[in-house]
Structures are given as C-alpha cells and as structure tokens.
C-alpha cells in the first residue's frame, strides 16, 4: 500500500509539473503574442506618424508653391522698368485750354518735284501730343501716285531721336492719303527736326531728307488765365521780356488771331490773349491796342518773345 501510495504521489507530482510547464509555456506564448502585437502596433503607429509627417511636408510644399510663385512674380514685376520711353513731362502752373481754332495751313515737307510720285505734308494738330506734353503733335499726310500697291514708307529721325516719338512705317496700299501722327519736342523756337524718308517701291529703294519746323504760332498752346493774373504776370515781364510791335490789325477778329497763334482770349477782355510754349511751359501774353495800332508782347523766354514780335509783323501781309 505504501508503495502504491508513493507511486500515485509521484504520478500526481509529474502531472502537476507537466500542467505547470504547459501553463508556463502558454503564458510565455501569450506574452510573446502580446509583445508581437505591441511591436506591430508601434510599427504601425510609427508608419502612420511617418505618413502624417510626409503628408505635412507635402502639404507644406503645396502651400509654399503658390507663395514661391507669387514671390517670383513679384520679383519679376519689381525688376521690370516701367519708365516711359518717351520724354520727360514738364509741369505748368497754368491749365491748358482747348485750341480755339485749327491751323489753316499744311506744310509740304516732301514734294512730287523731289520724288516723282510721293508727297508728304505736315499738319500741326494743336492737340496734346500722345507721346509727351512737351511735344508738338503733327499729322503727316502721305500720298503716292504710283500704281504699285506694295510700296512702303519708313520715316526715322536723323538725330536727337529722344526728342521725337521715334520712327514710323507706313504701307501704301492704294492711291489714297495715308495718315500718321508723330510728336516732336522743338526745345527752342529755331530748332529744325530732320528725318530720313526711305521709300521702297517697284523693287527700288529711294532715300530723302525731310525737315520739319513749325511756325511760332504752332509752338504754343492756349491756357486759362484771368485778367487779374494776366496783369500780375505782365507787370513782372519788363525789359528784355517785353516788346511793343507797331502793326495795324484794326480789322482783325479773335478768330483771325487764333488762326495765326494757338492762344486764347482772356475772359472779360477784348484784346488780351494768353498762351505758353509747349516745350518749356513759358508764358506768352499778347495785348492788342487797336487805337495805338500796336501789339505788346510779354514773354518769359526772351528769344521766343523777340522772334514772336517779328512773326506778328508778318500777319498784316496775310489775307483774311
């Protein structure tokens, strides 16, 4: 009995040991499984964080792109030079007035006698120039009597191009008048603007030199001024700035004067006229005295005033 009891106890102990071992093994496997799951969870979390970081970087890039693009565009805009190619602007203390009458004259600067089939006339528009407020606006009327419809005219300033609107090109398509507008800053009353005219027609190329010089009456623009201002400014223009021209214009009207000079009658008067030079915005005041048969000239530009006084003396020879 004792022997059987001992064997039974040993067997129970062995079974207990095996059970304990099985439990330890299962517990170990469970721990390993949990650790594996934790590692996988950590790996997935790290991968998720990396993906989030990548997405953030990607989003940052997407957001930055417009910013960089905008910055580049702004840099380009800042680098651009918007300075006008045309000449500088001269400010005037006086308000420019519309021309009271158009010029009645056109001036042929290239004739059929010179070219055979080509004629160019200059007309001073008295309108503000589109190129600069210091330039005289000039319409060119170009006419070719040639039957060749493929001729071309090129006009370019020979020198002092900066004081002009630049070269122009005109295609002659038919036997009609073709028009083009140019601007010239004459700077002083005796300046002559020289241009080269290249005429391509019938397979040939001809060159001519043309000169443009406006009358003094086309080198000024009408201004708004009151009688009080007129008298005040005239009182300052004495000595070399003043001339009295003996001339009998008793039968002339304001319109007759407007045709000769781009000026304006001062409001409230019958014989005060005001203008300023286009190039330099210098005052020109005219006071007509019919009874004394003279014209008083007040000019901020001494040379212009002297030349204009001589110009007035030619008016009496013009038929009205």
UniProtKB/TrEMBL annotation:
Domain spans labelled AP-3 complex subunit beta C-terminal: 82-156
Ranges for region Disordered: 1-70
InterPro entries for this protein: AP3B1/2_C (IPR056314), AP3B_C (IPR029390)
Boundaries of every AP-3 complex subunit beta-1/2 C-terminal domain copy: 217-313
Acidic residues compositional bias, start-end: 11-57
Lineage: superkingdom: Eukaryota
Record's protein name: Coatomer subunit delta
Biological classification of the source: Eukaryota, Metazoa, Ecdysozoa, Nematoda, Chromadorea
């Amino acid at each position: 009995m004792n022997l059987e009891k001992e064997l039974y106890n040993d067997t129970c102990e062995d079974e207990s040991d095996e059970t304990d071992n099985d439990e330890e093994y299962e517990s170990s496997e469970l721990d390993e499984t949990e650790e594996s799951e934790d590692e996988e969870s950590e790996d997935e979390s790290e991968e998720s964080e990396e993906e989030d970081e990548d997405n953030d970087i990607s989003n940052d890039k997407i957001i930055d792109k417009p910013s960089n693009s905008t910055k580049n565009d702004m840099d380009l805009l800042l680098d651009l030079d918007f300075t006008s190619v045309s000449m500088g602007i001269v400010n005037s203390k006086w308000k420019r007035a519309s021309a009271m009458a158009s010029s009645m004259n056109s001036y042929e600067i290239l004739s059929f006698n010179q070219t055979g089939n080509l004629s160019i006339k200059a007309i001073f528009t008295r309108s503000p120039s589109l190129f600069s407020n210091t330039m005289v606006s000039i319409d060119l009327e170009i006419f070719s009597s040639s039957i060749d419809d493929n001729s071309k005219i090129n006009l370019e300033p020979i020198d002092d191009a900066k004081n002009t609107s630049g070269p122009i090109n005109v295609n002659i398509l038919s036997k009609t008048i073709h028009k083009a507008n140019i601007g010239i800053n004459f700077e002083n009353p005796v300046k002559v603007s020289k241009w080269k005219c290249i005429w391509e027609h019938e397979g040939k190329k001809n060159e001519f030199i043309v000169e443009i010089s406006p009358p003094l009456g086309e080198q000024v623009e009408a201004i708004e001024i009151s009688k009080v201002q007129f008298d005040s400014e005239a009182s300052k223009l004495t000595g070399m700035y003043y001339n009295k021209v003996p001339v009998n214009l008793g039968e002339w009207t304001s319109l007759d004067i407007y045709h000769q000079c781009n000026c304006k009658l001062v409001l409230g008067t019958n014989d005060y006229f005001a203008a300023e030079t286009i190039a330099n915005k210098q005052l020109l005041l005219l006071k007509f005295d019919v009874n004394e048969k003279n014209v008083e000239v007040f000019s901020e530009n001494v040379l212009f005033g002297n030349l204009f006084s001589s110009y007035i003396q030619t008016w009496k020879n013009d038929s009205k």
